[in-house]
Amino acid sequence: MALPPGRARQTGVVSHPMNHKGVEFVLLARPGRNQWTLVISYPRNVNPTEVRVGGSRDEAIAAAGARIDRWLKRQREIEKKASSLPRTDC
Description:
By secondary structure, the chain is α+β, with helices and mostly antiparallel strands. It has one domain. The chain has helices spanning 7-10, 57-84; strands spanning 18-20, 23-29, 35-41, 49-54. Strand 2 and strand 3 form a beta hairpin. The N and C termini lie far apart (40 Å).
């Protein structure tokens, strides 16, 4: 996963890429105690999503997992709706 240009230089600590249910993310430390930026690379999206969170490192990782779970749920709902539409290529 590539970080946005200049992003790695702006933070002091970058986690190793992590994976939750097939979606890759990294955790970046921001200035201040327990301040983080999640960089999530959703499949089929060109640009990674950045989200600022506060809390412990474990809480930030849990927040990433929750965001990814919500995204996956929305994708399943979209696919379900698309498969229930009548086909127009017949």
